[in-house]
Amino acid sequence: MIVLRSILFNMVFYANLIVQMIVLTPIYFLLPRKKAWFVPKNWVRSNHWLMEKMVGTTFEIEGLENIPEVPYIFAPKHQSFWDAYALLPWLSDPFYILKRELTWIPLFGWYVLKQRMVPVNRAARGKAMTGVMDRTKQEMATGRELIIYPEGTRRPPGAPPEYKYGIARLYRDLSVPVVPVAMHPGLFWPRRKFLRFPGHFKVRILPPIEAGMDPDAFLAKLVEVTERASDELLVETVKANPHLPLPPTAQQRLKELKAEGRA
Fold this sequence. Notes:
Elements (H helix, E strand, L loop, with lengths): L1 H22 L1 H6 L7 H18 L1 E6 L9 E5 L17 E6 L8 H7 L3 E3 L6 H15 L3 E3 L18 H9 L3 E6 L15 E7 L9 H26 L7 H12 L4
Helix pairs in contact: 1-3, 6-7
């Protein structure tokens, strides 16, 4: 049954993306930029509904009160394609620093450019990267939120942390708070797999780390608070969803937490 539901969900998920992108394109490009967020945010909400009804997966968000009213960096754990889009409805006017090649994709790239995402040539050095930082500062000066995944790529649940120093540089240069986010969608929407598993999980938005710390001290604190919350949620999620097939990384981390008396 899980295989069948997963196949049907994946088919409907991508069909929903294509249909909404085509049908709502005139509305999206006629609306002012910020109001046009209605279109992708509506798509996200429809995906949450589809995942609940077709797969049986639900979630809740804790800590929305921790989101600052000033510009900030939103720094979630990254485990799944789900967390690349799922929290957009709860953010005011977010933007990403993303590969410039994504802006070349027909239609999708036009959506990205309208929202003034910041494209980057990963092979670029020096002046080009300075331009990326200048653009990022310009966007944040208008009150926007920058979404950055501190580990840079999707990591399986329970995997040892591999935080990149780039977020510490951004924290230093932008002088804004960083909001850590812990969650385990990768237990329900595993990376590089088509299976989707039913159950319930939490997204935990943590108190912001205020601007002004030494970058090294900031990075150490970011890792500490995020991983502590991530461990707590891993234990909670597995207890609440005993049917879940756990990846080896999650199994190993649970053994470590049990040995430490934390599970």
